[in-house]
Amino acid sequence: MIRTLRVLICLIAFMILLPTVTGAVPYRTYYVDGTGEYYRIQPLYVPDGVLDYPFKEPVHVHIGQNDQVFVFDKSLSKVLVFDSKRTLVREIGDEDGEGRLNAPEGGFVHSNGDIYVADTGNRRIAVFSAEGRFLRAFGKPDATMLGDAFQFVPTNLVVDRRGVMYVTVRASDQGLVRINPDGQFLGFFGANKSSPSFLSWVKRLVLTKEQLEKEVANKPRPIANIAMDQEGYLLSVSPGIEMAGNIRKLNAGGADALKNIVLINSWNIVDVAADANGFLYGLEQANGEVTVYDPKGNALFVFGTKQQFAQVRGQFIYPTNIAINSQFELAVADSGLKVVQLFKRTAFATDILTASDLYYKGRYAESESYWNKVLQQNEMFDISSQGLGRIALLKGNYEEAQRLFQSAYDVNGYSEAFWNTRIDRIKAGMIPAIAIILFTWILYRLLRKKTILLWRNIAWPDAVRRYGGEWKTFWYCFFHPYEGYYQLKGKKISFVFILSILLLTILVRAANVYKSGFIFHPVDRSTLNLGFELLFIFVPWLTWIIANYLVCSVKGGEGRLREVLQASTFGLSPYLLISVIIIPLSNIVVLEEMIIVNVVSKVMLLWTVAHFFVMTQVIHNFEFLETLKNTVITTFTICIIWFFVIVISGMTYNLYDFVFQLYKEVMFNA
């Protein structure tokens, strides 16, 4: 009886959970925060079936007026037209004659209803009426600029309001081909810029003109795909590992409104679509992912995946194109699956993208209710904090706005809120601050002589006096490097003082990492590793000591290892003393005043470099040119030391891994 009851309970539980399991979305959705970190969230889009048609190779999908769906099938050599209810209403492409298509790969539907087809196999642009009747065709324009070697193989196009065509041509590195309504060539448009590598830069320095002419030219990436948004901007797609300019938003003059920014998750992007609010939807082919970008190109969400085993609706094999309709529903052509998959937006996505749209349009008050809805469903969105921070700023809640902007890593918003907070604090604290300063000055004037006399009359132990003298030398070295290092050369600085300087360096670096102003360090401080941060100071410092001593000893330098260690420790004085100014300063300036901190930081860097240069010259008794030459050699030696340490570390790890795996194998077989 008990066993039967257990089986019954298991069956009931299975029946309860079955809808949840079968209705699960077959991919994960992630939110990309302001630092580029991914966080898993609830779905934005869920699978909503496929278009019912036996496609063979759907490579392009376009949404026309009244949400009609135009599917370009390369193998069928046809354009299939579906209405908003997913019913096939028309097939475009005649069986013979001028209207016969050959492997079309893209197309565009003009606002007047005409259908432009990139008839790739026939190397032409074919134009059909809304009813599917062939109207005209445009082949390769007759233009001297194109030349006989130019292969006109159109793969996609868009058409502006004037009827001017912007055509992507396979493997063309000159940009889009512009053709007017009469078929005349208007020139190239929107070509990518070439990205010279470091190797090519070295070749230009070393090789002769004749040798350079034999090298393969560094050509720009071809434009692989093109789309158009609601405002008439051209959206060019150019996949590449550098990800800068992989998606560009070109205006009528060819300028990129996205300013050639690096777009997350775009290295193998094949297409992009824009919704009615200007949000971009990039289709990445390698991982089968769709990335949602805001109108400025910042990645917000990523969802989708490729099939691994069994065929699952909502997953991809070889996605090639994406489109979005007026209801914000997505259509993705997948030539690997031979289907056009459809996705519908969830209520959660509607709330967050509506709130984001209102925020970007400056309608902050209207967006507040949507942000609150989003936070009720998921509290992890910094974009929600960004929107609510803007609302708090408008209401005059500046400290709350600061907190919200900081949680959203919004430096501009934080700076604006802090500007107002700072004014309020200055107004509230000006009189007490003046009173404290005045009181301190009067007290100093009254007690200065007595304090100095009392300090001098104290019978300090010799060790303390020596330690104080070393601090005096350290301070003198900061302002007078040449004289200071000459004094230091004949002294023996205690290891207690050297350790004190190193400890102070650790504390200053920790303060720099954790206590710098948010405007200058907009990161999550809890994720930072102080040990890793300290390596950036102590590894170069330690290798400098080793390399400088070895190189200068070979070159006839007079400095001993202890003297190099002492002087290199004193060389940290600009970093220590000027950081004491930079850290508080970074907490009281706003974005517009950032140049002040930047200038002080540059002075600190230059003064530190000058200290190490002067230290090398004085400690080793070199002339100026000798010092310059040995400093360069020391820097090169440092790089060599790092290289060998990395190689030896890698080999040691491989040896350890080999021994460990061998040990496991022996123990397992035993």
The total of helices stands at 16
The residue-averaged pLDDT reads 88
Number of DSSP strands? 25
> In which order are the strands of the major sheet placed?
2-1-22-21-20-19
CATH H-level superfamily of the largest domain: TolB, C-terminal domain
CATH topology-level name of the largest domain:
Neuraminidase
In helices, the fraction of residues equals: 40-55%
Q: Which stretches of 5+ consecutive residues score pLDDT under 50?
A: 1-22
Strand content: 15-25%
CATH architecture annotation of the largest domain: 6 Propeller
- Tell me, briefly, the overall form: elongated
Provide the number of structural domains.
Answer: 3
What is the CA-atom radius of gyration, in angstroms?
Answer: 34 Å
Instruction: Give a short account of the largest sheet.
Output: 6 strands, antiparallel
CATH class of the largest domain: Mainly Beta
The end-to-end distance, rounded to whole angstroms, is: 48 Å
Kindly name the structural category. alpha+beta
Describe the structure.
Its main location: membrane. GO terms for molecular function: zinc ion binding. With 670 residues, this protein is α+β, with helices and mostly antiparallel strands. It has three domains: 29-345, Neuraminidase (6 Propeller); 347-458, Serine Threonine Protein Phosphatase 5, Tetratricopeptide repeat (Alpha Horseshoe), CATH 1.25.40.10; 461-653, no CATH class. The protein contains 16 helices and 25 strands. The strands form six sheets. A six-stranded antiparallel beta sheet has the order 2-1-22-21-20-19, with no helix packed on it. It has a four-stranded antiparallel beta sheet with strand order 3-25-24-23. The protein has a four-stranded antiparallel beta sheet with strand order 4-5-6-7, with no helix packed on it. A hairpin with a 5-residue loop joins strand 8 and strand 9 (115-119). Helix 7 packs across helix 8 (411-457), helix 9 runs antiparallel to helix 10 (481-489) and helix 10 runs parallel beside helix 15. The longest helix is centred in the middle third of the chain and has 47 residues, at 411-457. Mean pLDDT is 88; it is low at 1-22.
